[in-house]
Write a structure and sequence with these properties.
This protein has 269 residues and is an alpha/beta fold. The chain has a single domain, classed as Alpha-Beta Barrel (TIM Barrel), CATH 3.20.20. It is 36% helix and 17% strand. The N and C termini lie close together (9 Å).
Length: 269
């Protein structure tokens, strides 16, 4: 069973799932490892949800659980950082202080100009095509400026989950001018790209990013693929991982990566 390296628990503002329930679910699925990656999106007071993570408390609990479950499953300690350019100093200081405490850091682009694409106000402001364009533009800028604060870039085209017509009006080619240089930045700096199966949960029929982006990353020389379900509740942990395996093999990948102490270890798909 592929190991799940993107999932959320009660420490994330948008989940109330006890950590133990996620761990027990992974064990039942036969996983030998997992990585818990709760949200830390600093300076998002414009959101109704509080995405600030109490990092010291989080680390204390997960380290205790890691010891408790060490004979049953390896628990890797991760975090999903929300990337925003004006937080460059904050994120660098955070990485300096806590980076060595984590096995894995996902860098994700969630918000655009103080707006959340999850909300209809975003699409009413920008419209569908421009709303997607703005997201990819700002994601490229964030990867260029903040690549040294994370290990793998999360769910690159996540925004299509919430677009008015989801991915029916979206293609890689239409936004290639921003997506391709983003992929090249990841490769240049030795950063991973996440294959996030949450897209299946949202009815896209594809992971995030879509298979065309995954294939292009490989064609450009990218090798570091991390895999996560983005599960906020146990029933979605490991969701669609067999379909994910098939897609990645078709895109030319033979391995996926699991990070230990911020260093990727490769496993056969």
């Amino acid at each position: 069973m592929i190991y799940d390296c993107h999932l959320h628990t009660e420490f994330s503002g948008d989940s109330d799932t006890p950590v133990r329930r996620q761990i027990e679910r992974a064990i039942r699925l036969g996983m030998m490892e997992m990585c818990i990656t709760d949200h830390h999106d600093y300076d998002t007071s414009f959101c109704d949800t509080n995405f600030n993570l109490d990092i010291p408390s989080y680390l204390t609990v997960l380290q205790s659980l890691r010891n408790e479950y060490k004979e049953r499953i390896r628990i890797n300690i991760g975090v999903e950082l929300g990337l925003q350019n004006h937080l460059k100093r904050y994120l660098h200081n955070l990485e300096k202080e806590y980076g060595s405490c984590f096995d894995f850091i996902i860098g994700s682009s969630h918000f655009v100009m103080g707006m959340d694409p999850y909300d209809s106000d975003y699409w009413e402001t920008y419209g569908e095509e421009d709303g997607l364009e703005q997201f990819f533009k700002v994601s490229l800028s964030r990867v260029r400026n903040l690549y040294d604060t994370f290990d793998s870039f999360g769910h690159l085209d996540y925004i299509v989950r919430y677009a008015p017509h989801q991915n029916s009006c979206y293609t890689y080619q239409r936004y290639e001018q921003w997506i391709e240089p983003l992929l090249m930045e990841l490769i240049r700096h030795g950063k991973g790209l996440e294959c996030n199966t949450g897209g299946f949960k949202y009815g896209l029929g594809q992971p995030n990013p879509c298979s065309r982006i995954l294939k292009r990353y490989r064609e450009l020389g990218g090798e570091i693929i991390t895999i996560g379900s983005d599960a906020h509740s146990p029933e979605f942990l490991g969701n669609a991982f067999e379909e994910c395996r098939r897609i990645l093999l078709e895109c030319g990948f033979r391995h996926y990566a699991v990070y230990h102490e911020r260093v990727p270890e490769f496993h056969l798909l």
